[in-house]
Design goal:
alpha/beta, Rossmann fold, five-stranded parallel β-sheet, globular
Length: 310
């Protein structure tokens, strides 16, 4: 299998300029640190018990444009209350309230964000036409409120696109398989930093969404075989070697990789990358189950979607 000189692909987020200003303001204003409780000294904890029926849930969402409902019919401005939003974060919050919980939501999602500063730098190098406005470790993790009881995390899609763009520009030319594996390890190191940072100052139940096989999403339907092979290798490795093993640490995993609904074109926005309302709705329903069930199913070790491209 060769990935050499695969075509570069960028997913461009069309973000209103007012949003960019809001993101910049929130990332630089020191008052946000006080408001969101930066600087707690709690020992790392990872409780696994779901919230008691009818209790208060302090829900914090860590993510990128998925958290702000990009692709949905009602998209949300970052960092503000968006009660009618149609993304999985907003729908899950409404469903939890409908189930009798009192929910306070802090949505830290930043459109275009990647998990860490290393991927932000990699994106700046290889995807200059798709600027990244932040990363989870520097601009989201420190602002998880200290009283958070539930955190959801969705990471990896923008990173896969960054890696395939780098390959298309010649990165890892002598060993592209090795380059992919190296970047997956970097993703794993960033994930560990993210989880440790969250648990350092917030005792919280963590629900993580793994990645579907991006090679099976509509946006890559017409891409060349090398790019689809690279996207598959990267996404499957991120899910199976980085995210799924987190179950051993008490993290609950929503298994998008092996869910057939992740591959229905009808669940995607016109860009073929972001979910639409129906796509976000099925994700939200799984997030609610993952938050509230005492025994939520562990991700599968293997499934047909892991090998869509050969």
């Amino acid at each position: 299998m060769r990935y050499f000189r695969c075509r570069s692909f960028n997913v461009t987020h069309h973000i209103p300029i007012s949003w960019i200003g809001a993101v910049t303001l929130c990332l630089t204003a020191s008052v946000a640190c006080d408001k969101l409780g930066l600087g707690g000294d709690k020992s790392p904890m990872m409780p696994t018990a779901p919230p008691a029926a009818g209790s208060k849930i302090v829900y914090t969402a860590v993510g990128a444009s998925d958290a702000t409902a990009h692709g949905g019919s009602i998209e949300c401005v970052p960092f503000v209350d968006c009660p009618n939003g149609t993304g999985y974060v907003q729908v899950a919050a409404r469903q939890l309230r409908a189930n009798g919980f009192t929910v306070t939501l802090t949505n830290l999602g930043i459109p275009t964000a990647v998990i860490g500063p290393d991927f932000q730098a990699l994106s700046a190098q290889y995807r200059p036409g798709a600027p990244v406005f932040g990363n989870y470790i520097d601009q989201e993790m420190p602002f998880v409120p200290k009283d958070t009881t539930v955190v959801t995390i969705f990471a990896g899609g923008n990173e896969v696109n960054t890696i395939t763009a780098a390959l298309g520009a010649g990165a890892g030319a002598s060993d592209q398989l090795g380059y992919i594996d190296q970047q997956v390890k970097a993703f794993g190191a960033d994930y560990a930093t993210l989880l440790n940072g969250i648990n350092a100052h917030a005792a919280t139940r963590i629900v993580v969404l793994n990645l579907p096989n991006l090679a099976g999403l509509p946006y890559l339907a017409t891409a060349g075989l090398p790019q689809r092979q690279a996207a598959q290798r990267t996404a499957v490795a991120m899910s199976t070697t980085v995210i799924n093993p987190l179950t051993s640490q008490g993290v609950t995993i929503v298994d998008l990789m092996c869910d057939p609904r992740s591959y229905l074109a009808s669940n995607y926005f016109s860009d073929g990358f972001h979910p639409n309302d129906s796509g976000y709705a099925f994700i939200a329903a799984e997030v609610v189950r993952a938050i509230t069930l005492t025994s939520y199913p562990a991700p599968l070790g293997s499934c047909p979607p892991m090998t869509l491209v050969r």
